[in-house]
Amino acid sequence: MKGLVRKNIRNITPYKAGKPIEETRRELGLKEIIKLASNENPLGPSPKALEAARKVLGGLNRYPDSQSFYLKQRLGKHYRIAPSMVVLGNGSDELIDIIIKTFVEDNEHIVTSRATFLEYEIIANVNGRRVVTVPLKDFKYDLDAIRKKVTARTKLVFIANPNNPTGTYVNKAQLEAFITSLPKTALVVLDEAYDSFIDVKDFPDSLALAKKGNCIVLKTFSKAFGLAGLRIGYAIADAKLTPYLEKVRQPFNVNLIAQAAAQAGLDDKHFLRRSRAAVLEGKRYLYRQLDSLGIRYVPSVANFILVDVRANSVEIFKKMLTLGVIVRDMQQYGLINFIRVTIGTAPENRKFIAALKKVLA
Ligand code: PMP
Q1: 159 CA distance to ligand 1 middle (Å)
Q2: Which of 43, 106, 271, 346 has the fewest CB atoms lying closer than 10 Å?
Q3: Which atom belonging to ligand 1 lies closest to the Cα atom of 223?
């Protein structure tokens, strides 16, 4: 049977998602489980989004608006850009696929970093496209080394900013110099899934870059707005590029509930402020605890922290699981001795530290 399958599909290592709470409950029979494995929002969904979602349930017999007209208008207003610069997707995951399908020819490739969001490589390979990866430097994207790998056959450069799983970022000056150095035949995809949590002043102005046509920016409602289960994200790009992305996407890729909830979520400034404050406060607590335990970590501008457990991270992951704490082992990212922990609520963060202490003792 295997011979029936396309060769590039046979060779793909599938994406390993964070272990679901329900699965852990089933397998280990534990009552109290916390999940700090998928960089989700621990405060739940935005209440305004939830209310809007409930209101549209009676209309589920109809297809959603294939143009997501009102949501695009709303996003246009939010960013002060033309709605025609926005393309919506079933999570930003889907936009990665749409972008690769739209731009990368058979004989072209993609360049990105090692130890970055794994979906870039997986989705490229599903599409039969090659990815060249460059090692991280001090846990950061090494833009100089990436530049050296860019050739006339490079169509896309994926940059997760902040990077998942390291939580590091490329600053404004570094990114602008990098983009200026690229040939006109290469486009940068700037994936800003975690931009709501940044607490630095030199973060790039991605919208300005998108307006100049130098890059495509990806954003999501999955993190700060707490809507990961709804699957909605978007790309912002030059209005001369977006019609091509629109051709590639499926007509009803963004469901009716997601369109309504996302619009209302954008207005939920109170929830956004609370989400951000919880992350910043939780991060300070975790840093203090890790410091006092002498455990090394990579300082993060996102809602997760890469922690050096100085032991096989799969073993640590399994031991933490028996204590009801789901984290992410970094084996698939090639960071064998690291786990990634999502910043949770204060009680969750305390439970994580207590479990980590026990496991590393
Ligand atoms: N980009 C990065 C860097 C991510 O970490 C994630 C989520 N894990 C995504 C994109 C995908 O997000 P979405 O839920 O919008 O598909």
Answers
A1: 12
A2: 106
A3: 14
Q: How far apart, in whole angstroms, are the C-alpha atoms of residue 206 and residue 195?
A: 10
Label residue 314 exposed, middle or buried (CB < 10 Å: 0-12, 13-18, 19+): middle
Check: CB of residue 300 under 8 Å from CB of residue 283. yes
pLDDT in tens, 23-50: 999 998 898 999 999 999 999 999 999 9
Q: Residue 119 Cα, ligand 1 centroid: separation in angstroms?
A: 8
Q: Which is the closest atom of ligand 1 to the Cα of 92?
A: 15
Edge-to-edge, what's the strand order for the sheet holding 297-298?
297-298, 304-308, 338-342, 328-329
CA of 96 to the centre of ligand 1 (A): 10
E strand or H helix that includes residue 160: strand 154-160
CB 193 within 8 A of CB 164: yes
Strand partners, 46: none
| pLDDT tens digits for range 45-76 | 999 999 999 999 999 999 999 999 999 999 99
What percent of the chain has pLDDT above 90? 95
User: What are φ and ψ of residue 16, in 5° steps?
Assistant: -105, 110
